Structure formats: structure tokens, C-alpha cells
UniProtKB/TrEMBL annotation:
Species this protein is from: Dactylosporangium maewongense
Entries under InterPro entries matching the protein: AB_hydrolase_1, AB_hydrolase_fold, AB_hydrolase_sf, Peptidase_S33
Descriptive protein name: AB hydrolase-1 domain-containing protein
Alphabetically ordered keywords of this record: Hydrolase
Domain AB hydrolase-1: 20-250
Organism domain of life: Bacteria
Family, per entry: Belongs to the peptidase S33 family.
Classification via PANTHER family: AB HYDROLASE SUPERFAMILY PROTEIN YCLE, MONOACYLGLYCEROL LIPASE
Length: 259
């Protein structure tokens, strides 16, 4: 599809039912929600998309939060009839939250998965780096897979899960990653996001994996600020909780009484 400024975005639509739009992590990565689309295809019209400059979408900027929100609005308008449930993962959870705050009339429900909250990044990033136990040695596929392997506590299947994340493989958009991450960090320091969250009337489901390397306490202030929130922590799951506990994850999303 084309955004309102003419940028070509890759999208994939399947399933049947109320629209469910995925917002992938990164920034600078691509949609990895194939398993999720299959999981929910019997209950939702699923909409996957690669964000601007990422994966199969056109590699052009600008790379900003406002542009990302506008692109998401275009995706919803094109494929979701103007309103949808949003399922955001990691950075995509923050993107989906910001969209719900700005367009509550277009969001039926927000599923906030493995996000890092609304506080300063110092509340989670130092501990994450310690827990990760390594640094990225290069931006090629093999180096990234080695790093991603650390995300999974099941050591026997960790490499398999990391390989699946990297298949298909697209070059990481480093400019997109650096630019948007810096902007988000600045906005979180300078903006009282909790005050905006207290006014949100969209139902929110927060799903965490207890073994995520990013401290789950970082999300506590977000949960405390939201007036209509339910939180599910999946024991033993990590940053991609649907991979390690698919039954628990689908049960949390589909079993939410506010669906």
C-alpha cells in the first residue's frame, strides 16, 4: 500500500473477524508476526506490515515517531476500516500506545506485549545490558542471531528460536533504529506520559514474559496509570512470549473479557 506521502509499505492481510493490526518491534526491524497471524486468524482479520524503511517496505524516511504514527494511521485506514485492536510488541508496543493516546476513537483495544514502559530508559536499559551478557559484534545475520539467542531461557531451543526470528532476513535499518530510539528517549524524559495515560479510555491488556531480559518492573508505572488495564505475566516466557508459551499467550489475548 501507499502512505499519504507516497511511501510504499509491505502489508499482509488474512483471517476473518474484527481487525487486529500488529506493530512489530525494533525500530529498524521488520514484521515477525507470522505465528501470531496464524494463531489469531480464526478470530480476527489480521494485518501485518513492515514499518517505513524496514523489511519489505520502501527504504526512505523520515524516521520519526510522528511519521510512524501517521503510517500506522494509514495502515488502519487502508486495511482495518478505520478502527482495530492493536497488538504491539517491544518498540511496537510503545508505538501502539502512542497511537491509542492520539486516536482513541480508532482503537478498540490495545494489547501491549513486552514493552518497556513510560519511564526513563535508565529504569530498564542498564539491567537489560547486564542480563544480555554481550554486545552486538556486527550487523550481519550471524552476529544478530548469536545475540538474539540470549533472549531465550530454554537453552536447548534458543538457537532455533533466534534463527526463526531471522527468517526471512532483511538488513536492519540502523538509521531508523538510532534516530527513533533517541527521539523516544528524549520524549520520555521531557513528557509526562503518565498523565496522558490516565485519560485513556481504551481497554489495555499488558502481556509480559517473566524471563524477559528487560526488567518487567519498568512497566509498573504504565499499568498504574492506565484506568482500564489487565496484566498477564507468563511464567518462564521471555521477550517473545507467544513463541515459548503459545497457549498461554493466545489464552490471555482471546480470553480477555473486554474483547
Amino acid at each position: 500500500m501507499l502512505t499519504r506521502d507516497g511511501c510504499r509499505l509491505w502489508t499482509e492481510v488474512g483471517g476473518d473477524g474484527p481487525p487486529l493490526v500488529f506493530c512489530h518491534g525494533g525500530p529498524g526491524l521488520w514484521d515477525m508476526a507470522g505465528d501470531l497471524a496464524t494463531m489469531f486468524a480464526g478470530h480476527h482479520r489480521t494485518v501485518r506490515w513492515d514499518q517505513r524503511g524496514c523489511g519489505r517496505s520502501e527504504r526512505r524516511g523520515p524516521y520519526t515517531l510522528d511519521q510512524s504514527l501517521q503510517d500506522l494511521d494509514d495502515v488502519i485506514g487502508e486495511h482495518a476500516g478505520g478502527g482495530a485492536t492493536l497488538l504491539g510488541h517491544s518498540w511496537g508496543a510503545h508505538l501502539a500506545l502512542e497511537y491509542a493516546l492520539g486516536h482513541p476513537d480508532r482503537v478498540r483495544r490495545l494489547v501491549y506485549v513486552a514493552g518497556t514502559g513510560i519511564g526513563d530508559e535508565d529504569t530498564w536499559k542498564p539491567a537489560f545490558r547486564r542480563n544480555l551478557g554481550g554486545v552486538l559484534s556486527g550487523w550481519d545475520r550471524a552476529s544478530v542471531v548469536r545475540l538474539w539467542t540470549a533472549e531465550f531461557p530454554d537453552r536447548e531451543r534458543a538457537a532455533e528460536h533466534a534463527e526463526a526470528m531471522a527468517t526471512p532476513w532483511f538488513d536492519i535499518n540502523r538509521e531508523c533504529s538510532a534516530t527513533i530510539n533517541a527521539e523516544i528517549a528524549r520524549r520520555l524524559r521531557e513528557t509526562d506520559l503518565a498523565a496522558r495515560c490516565r485519560e485513556l479510555r481504551v481497554p489495555v491488556l499488558v502481556v509480559d514474559g517473566s524471563a524477559d531480559l528487560r526488567p518487567r518492573s519498568a512497566v509498573d508505572s504504565l499499568v498504574a496509570a492506565l484506568p482500564d488495564v489487565r496484566r498477564v505475566v507468563l511464567d518462564g516466557a521471555s521477550h517473545l512470549p507467544w513463541v515459548e508459551d503459545p497457549d498461554g499467550f493466545s489464552g490471555a489475548v482471546l480470553g480477555d473479557p473486554r474483547r
